Amino acid sequence: MAFMSEKVKIFILGTYHFGNSGEHLVDINCKDVITDQKQEEIKEVIQKLVQFKPNKIAVELKQEDEKRLNEIYIEYCRNNFDEYNEIVNYDNEIVQLGFRLGKMLKHTKIYPIDHMIYLPEEVFEYAEKNCPEFYKEYMNKANEYETSTNEHIRNNTIGENLKYLNNPKRVEKEHSDFYLGLAKIGAGDNYYGADMLTEWYRRNLFIFGNLQNISEKGDRILVIYGAGHCKILRELVKGYRKFEFVDPLNYL
């Protein structure tokens, strides 16, 4: 591929899952985003995101579902959303942020860039039996994080919650406590924790590769993804000379 003299601008928007889907150990429960109040809050967020002027929107959905996703997106743009499709629910952030913004900007398609992998979560059973002190401390942190995050989401607007989730200090702390901390499990023996962490990094590298694959000279790409991916994806974008990282807090 020829070197792109004009860097591709990448805006990674870390979010929580609007549809109340669990996040492995941490269960995030948000208010119904279809209420009138939450819909107004989403409109305010969209008005901020539109200032970035993305020409492509990438979302957290398997890349192989691209054809079906865009059939649904086209129907959405025609004001006809199938509530019972097998791909994405109406209250999902893909629809509420990605589809809504894409329609406003007259985008012809949405770009799913996810690639699922197996995370060996039995590592926690091993930790509970073999490193009980570490396990207790880790689970206490997870419970505290779940409580504080759910409280923040309940008591703030969607825009304020997105600011919170994309704050660099929070991103760094979450990655250190809940991802890098795992490497200790089985260290010096079976390295179960390192194996799980390797799989998590591998998934994010697949995502990054898909992001590279959809990028072209002069693109401005908005990436809407679960906030847990932010640390790794930010570092990959910053380390790649053809990309330019866009700070989401400049728009939120």
Helix and strand sequence = EHEHHEHHHHHEHE
The total strand number stands at 5
Report mean pLDDT, rounded to a whole number.
93
Shape: globular
State which percent range the strand residues make up.
5-15%
Radius of gyration, in Å, reads 19 Å
* Quaternary structure: single chain
Output the number of helix runs. Answer: 9
Ends distance: 34 Å
The assigned structural class equals alpha/beta
Poorly predicted runs of 5 or more residues:
none
Can you give a write-up of this model?
This protein is α/β, with parallel strands linked by helices. It is 48% helix and 12% strand. A 5-stranded parallel beta sheet has the order 3-2-4-1-5, with helices on both faces. Helix 1 packs across helix 3, helix 4 packs across helix 5 and helix 8 crosses helix 9.
Helices and strands, with pairings:
Layout: E1 8-15, H1 36-49, E2 56-62, H2 66-77, H3 93-104, E3 111-114, H4 123-130, H5 132-155, H6 158-165, H7 168-178, H8 192-214, E4 220-226, H9 230-239, E5 243-246
Parallel strand pairs: 1-4, 1-5, 2-3, 2-4
Looking at this protein, list some descriptive labels.
252 residues; alpha/beta; 5-stranded parallel sheet; 5 strands; 48% helix
